[in-house]
């Protein structure tokens, strides 16, 4: 059928106050760019005229400044789920100008289909191409768009001329059946393909196509600092030890890696390891370092939900697409993050923490227990089901005023039941087969910064018995000291004796 080509402004005018929008993409890649910018401009005009205008935004994960950023600055988001990472939106969330619902990424799509979040008015899909039958070649991030496209009453397409049609075949699009009719997911290795290379939609639902030519806008990662390098070295040291001891199979296991400088440092170190064999990845995001690993032959295949490459690295990918084409496969979030698959193929999960406590609990989301940072993302999907679950963080931040190893995490995202290994720049704490007190001593001795080890030992000694000897009165003494004095080193446990 002949589609209607419109401007971004015309698309924005169709959207009403209170509408719910499902956005394509997973992180910045694949997310809308121009319709959301036009929508933000419209919201500002409506607010200037004294009229309310906010929409509900559902995505795969975070988006970009083209979406979450501009809409937040326009105060145009009523509700947001399931993940975000931009400062302007974070400010709105922490000020309660935006209702934010943090959710495991693997669960978002199916809960939309269950009807937990009401009806979906529009889906906005970035595409490399679309034919008259409604078959779409998607961009560099897949996310939850198969579900959003199915549920939405109407669809906008952002046809991005920056994206090559050669992306055809790099997507594995599938929509799961819902309980009680769901069958097993037939993925037995990271490179198994089970779906369609294109997204198939009802062409009659497409109310407009907007032509664009926009980069994803992912900035290059800064060079790893010495702390990140040491963390990366420690993670690789642990994996080498496990491999040489025979606790990992000879062909190794697929890896999952979070995002950020520490994750990139880990991957670069893996590329330099001569003890570890080539490996595959089964993850939610791949970053710049993965392309380098593929060029070296160290990473043979990556199953992902998004190619979160800097603009420069994305150009490298597109320029050499024939080489990378069969080494990368993008899947929907409910497949890339699926607990069934993660457990079946034995994924090694590597994620970052804001803080960890001496008994093995991890806080991934809330600064000082109250202020949302980004969200839980997919860390819970992988942590709970991984062959090995590794969390890393610096031992201290702010020049030592904050210890990232604390008596008790101020917000609990991952319990000690799910955390196997904690790594900092100081060392490696192996928590497997250890009781709570043994875990505490391991974490204090191996992961805490020397300036905090005595204080953490003092806290452990405050405990009055029980299997996990917390002192409930003193559990947040580190956090209280920081709030009161700006430095956790000023903690005085004598007040709690």
Task: Please describe the structure with a list of short key phrases separated by commas or semicolons.
497 residues; Glutaconate Coenzyme A-transferase; five-stranded mixed β-sheet; 19% strand; nine-stranded mixed β-sheet; single chain; alpha/beta; globular
Verbal overview:
This protein is α/β, with parallel strands linked by helices. The chain has 2 domains: 8-212, Glutaconate Coenzyme A-transferase (3-Layer(aba) Sandwich); 226-471, Glutaconate Coenzyme A-transferase, CATH 3.40.1080.10. It is built from 17 helices and 26 strands. Strands 1, 2, 3, 4, 5, 6, 7, 8 and 9 form a 9-stranded mixed sheet that branches. Strands 10-16-21-25-26 form a 5-stranded mixed sheet. Strands 11-13-15 form a 3-stranded parallel sheet. The protein is globular, with a radius of gyration of 23 Å.
Q: How do you describe this structure in short?
A:
The protein has about 500 residues and is of the alpha/beta class.
Low confidence ranges: none
Query: What's the level 1 CATH class of the largest domain?
Result: Alpha Beta
The number of strands is 26
Distance between the termini: 76 Å
Annotated CATH architecture of the largest domain: 3-Layer(aba) Sandwich
In percent, how helical is the residue content? 25-40%
For this structure, the CATH topology of the largest domain is Glutaconate Coenzyme A-transferase
Class derived from helix and strand content: alpha/beta
Q: Can you tell me the number of structural domains? A: 2
Largest sheet: 9 strands, mixed
Shape: globular
SS field, number of helical segments? 17
Mean pLDDT: 96
| Estimated radius of gyration | 23 Å
Strand composition percent? 15-25%
The CATH H-level superfamily of the largest domain is: Glutaconate Coenzyme A-transferase
